[in-house]
Amino acid sequence: MKPVSHKANMIRMQVIIWTCFAVIIFAMYYHEKQEILQGVIRAVCYTVYFASIMYANSLWLVPVFYRRRRKLLYVLLVILLLAGVTMAEIFTELFAQQYIYGAAEEKLSDVKPRVYMGLFFLNLLIFLFSLPLRLAFDYFTMRKQQEQLQRRTAEAELNLLKAQVQPHFLFNTLNNIYFVAQRESPSTAILLERLSNIMRYFVDEGPKEKIGLDREIDFIRDYIHLEKMRMRHPLETRFHVAGEVEGISIPPMLLIPLVENVFKHGINKRSEENILAIKITVDAKRLDLLVVNRLLEEMEASQPGGNGLPNLRSRLHLLFGNDYTLETEKKDGMFMAHLNIPL
User: Per-residue pLDDT tens for 203-249?
Assistant: First the structure.
């Protein structure tokens, strides 16, 4: 069984209220005049006119004019609305008297001013009742938005749980393969362990705003180890860390682009002279990274520049404004990338 929506509840409530309103008008007129037909016509007409005032104000005038700070125009339109409904009520009554009730013909000029004023102020009273109706519309709209937000939040939480289950299932599978590889091929087991570490970094650390510098350094070491396994000749690697890295936090994936850039554009897999030197220096206020690789002429001519460094510059600017340094230099057959950021 489907639950009844707030919109359906509100429509049903309004139908009941207006039906009761029409019944009350009919009962009052019938008690006074003892005329069923006239009572029905008056009840229907007044219900329609009063509903027109309330809904015109609630659904059109308030949202379109009042809430858009066009208050003077809103007031003028309200006066025109009340005056127009008042005139429509008088014309309807005159028409009904002449063509339905069979009463003596009465002209518009015969209607006394106090009748106009009485109907106008009655319509004004109905207009004032339209303000709580507008509040009711806003309330049900807010409830609907809250329910949609809660539903989307529940869906997001469910998707998050699914996203957490899938990587952990893969990690468990990698662990099983790792234990088998330890017996059959220890070198393969080491590769699997490095790969598992990198995947855990992406899943667990990547979404965070900041991570420990030691975790970032471990990620770089694992990445270099996996890349070296793809090379035909050994890669001369120098990795030096100066300063205290414990307790230091930086945004994730901030240092790796400079190292990745070396393997994309600064390594010749056919050469035996590849070099990668990394030096990370930490003091109390800043972090300094220097990445150096051999600049081979054939690689310089054949490898076009990528988007890694421009993307890194954009990210650094968003994170630190102008308080950072990112420089590249070619000197003495070496390519050097230097990064300095605040801590």
Answer: 777 777 888 899 889 888 888 887 887 777 778 888 999 888 888 88
Looking at the 3D structure of the chain, how many domains does it have?
A: 2
Is there a single domain that holds both residue 233 and residue 336?
A: yes
Is residue 148 domain-shared with residue 286, that is, in the same domain?
Answer: no
> Would you state the structure tokens that stand for residue 105, as one six-digit string?
């013909």
Query: 109: which DSSP letter?
Result: G
Contact, 282 vs 245, CB < 8 A?
yes
Say what the pTM is.
0.48
Q: Which two tokens stand for residue 33?
A: 């005049």
Amino acid letter at 30? Answer: Y
Residues β-bridged to residue 237: 276
In sequence order, what E strands does 123-273 have? 211-212, 236-242, 249-250
Distance CA 177, CA 72 (A): 76
Residues 135 and 233 in one domain: no
Of 105, 126, 154, which residue sits at a domain end? Answer: 154
